[in-house]
Specification:
There is one protein chain. The chain is mainly α and about 180 residues long. It has one domain: Orthogonal Bundle (Hypothetical protein af1432). It has 9 helices and no strands. The N and C termini lie far apart (about 55 Å). Bound molecules: zinc ion (ZN).
C-alpha cells in the first residue's frame, strides 16, 4: 500500500509541474519555423530523462519540466519553493542562467559551471543539450545559418565535457547526435 501511495505521490507532483510550467509558458513559442509551443521543450527534457535515461527521481523530472520557468517567465523563486519545495527549486536555480549577463558570458559560465553543479542538475543540463541538438537537426530556428548551428553544436560539446560520467547512456545519446554535425545545412 505504501509503495502504491508513494508512486501516486511521485506522479502527482510531476503532473503538477507539467500543469504549472504549461501555464507559465502559455504565451511563448520556440524559435523553429513552425513556432512550436514552448512547453514542448521542457516536456522533451523529461521524456529524454525518464524514457531514454531511465531516470525515476521525481525531483529531477520536476526540475527538468520547470527548468526555464525562472529564466524565461515571471515565475518567482518563492513561488517554486511554496509549490515544489526547496530541493526541486534548488535544482532549477542551478540550471538557470543570469539573464542580466551578456549571452557570450552566459555561454562561457555554463562551460565553467557544468563540472561543479549537483548530479541532478548535471542530468538536466545533459538532457537539455540532447533535446536542443535534436531540435536543430530536425526543426531548427528558421533564421539560423549553418555556421550558427555548427557553433551551437560545438558549444554544447564543451558544456557536456564537464558533465561526463554522470550518465554514460545519455552521453552516448548525446554523442550520436553530435556525430550528425556534418548533416547540418
Ligand atoms: Zn532548456
Amino acid at each position: 500500500m505504501n509503495a502504491i501511495k508513494n508512486a501516486s505521490q511521485d506522479i502527482g507532483i510531476v503532473i503538477e509541474a507539467l500543469a504549472f510550467a504549461a501555464h507559465k509558458h502559455r504565451d511563448q513559442r520556440r524559435k523553429d519555423a513552425n513556432a512550436s509551443p514552448y512547453i514542448n521543450h521542457p516536456i522533451a527534457l523529461a521524456n529524454v530523462l525518464a524514457n531514454e535515461g531511465g531516470v525515476s527521481d521525481p525531483a529531477v523530472l520536476c526540475a527538468a519540466i520547470l527548468h526555464d520557468t525562472i529564466e524565461d517567465t515571471e515565475t518567482k523563486v518563492v513561488e517554486l519553493e511554496e509549490k515544489f519545495g526547496s530541493r526541486i527549486t534548488a535544482i532549477v536555480l542551478e540550471v538557470t542562467d543570469d539573464k542580466t549577463l551578456d549571452p557570450d558570458v552566459r555561454k562561457q559560465l555554463q562551460i565553467e559551471h557544468a563540472p561543479h553543479i549537483s548530479p541532478e542538475a548535471q542530468l538536466i543540463k545533459l538532457a537539455d543539450k540532447i533535446s536542443n541538438l535534436r531540435d536543430i537537426l530536425t526543426s531548427p530556428p528558421a533564421d539560423w545559418s549553418i555556421e550558427r548551428k555548427q557553433a551551437y553544436f560545438d558549444w554544447t560539446e564543451k558544456v557536456v565535457a564537464g558533465l561526463r560520467g554522470i550518465h554514460p547512456g545519455l552521453e552516448l545519446v548525446y554523442d550520436t547526435l553530435y556525430a550528425r554535425r556534418a548533416e547540418l545545412r
